Amino acid sequence: MNWNIYLSGEIHTDWRQQIKSGAEQNNLPVTFTSAVTDHEASDAAGDLLGEENNNFWRDHKSSKVNSIRTKTLIERCDVAVVRFGDKFKQWNAAFDAGCCAALGKPYITLHDENIIHPLKEVDAAAMAWAQTPDQVLDILKYVINKE
């Protein structure tokens, strides 16, 4: 079986690449997908439908355009990894985790110990909480390779 893994959340560090590289080094049968991680492109997605002067409507349109990709990829994934960084609040990642929970999609949260409290509900619905990309990789190796 080839596993489809959706990588959600924080876009300012290389955690996605660490997991992808580790999966490749361990010959894991996986395909990784993700939301658009180019912040400027994501913010401007709604501009494809015409520019907006009001930031609310620009964000609203961009969110809807971006959700076409996000909704489709989450629905198709076997497992999601949802990363929360400590520099920015990733409300979109919390929303993705909620979608996973509602759809019955297993997900792993990835975040530091210092934000356990604000993520308690998100973590409560997760199948695992990891603090490092290596821990995520260990979980993936286990669930994919152990018989």
Task: Summarize it.
It contains six helices and five strands.
* Tally of DSSP β-strands: 5
Structural class comes to alpha/beta
CATH class term: Alpha Beta
Numbering strands along the chain, what is their spatial order in the largest sheet? 2-1-3-4-5
CATH topology: Rossmann fold
Question: Would you mind describing this structure in some detail?
Answer:
The protein has 147 residues and is α/β, with parallel strands linked by helices. The chain has one domain (3-145): 3-Layer(aba) Sandwich (Rossmann fold). The protein has 6 helices and 5 strands; from the N terminus they run E-H-E-H-H-E-H-E-H-E-H. It has helices at 15-25, 39-43, 55-76, 91-103, 120-125, 133-145; strands spanning 3-9, 30-34, 79-83, 107-110, 128-130. A 5-stranded parallel β-sheet has the order 2-1-3-4-5, with helices on both faces. The longest helix has 22 residues, at 55-76.
Layout of helices and strands:
Layout (H helix, E strand, L loop, with lengths): L2 E7 L5 H11 L4 E5 L4 H5 L11 H22 L2 E5 L7 H13 L3 E4 L9 H6 L2 E3 L2 H13 L2
